[in-house]
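Ticket #4471: structure output looks truncated?

Reporter: J.K.
Steps to reproduce: submitted the chain below (152 residues) through the standard prediction queue, then opened the result file.
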Amino acid sequence: MRSTEENSKNVQVKMTIQEIQEEIIQEFKTFGNWMDKYNYLIKLGKDLSPIDSKYKIEENIIKGCQVKTWFHSIFKDGKVFYDIDSSSMMIKGICVLLIKVLSGQKPEDIKNADLYFIDKIGLRENFSPVRANSLWKLVNKMKSDAALYDKQ
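Returned output as attached by the reporter:
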């Protein structure tokens, strides 16, 4: 993941949720119009590694999404890590962005995160109601899982 920086001891330190969001916003500013952004999201989706087949089961499907979207999270070393896949390349592209922002963060930071990058890069205003619903179902699932881990 690109969202790391090196400190003086040559140890990689994860960027904050806000820093990663700002990086995404800057990246999307390079696109001239929504169609360029849309094509980029599809490209990101094509590059997303598929979820391990052992997690591609009915109980891991996010309920209420129009397309099949599988979700798995783990809690390790005080941080939450996500593995997500979808049958839609566009949703997979969104998964890449959400994983970049939230995966590897502390549960409290995830559940309290204001994911303002979604509006800043134009996802909310340019998505159909069906895609917007899938986006918010995914965000809610990521935050609710983080809340469960926060109690550990």
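Triage note (M.O.): checked the attachment and the full token line is present. The CA atoms of residues 45 and 91 lie 7 Å apart.
Status: closed, working as intended.
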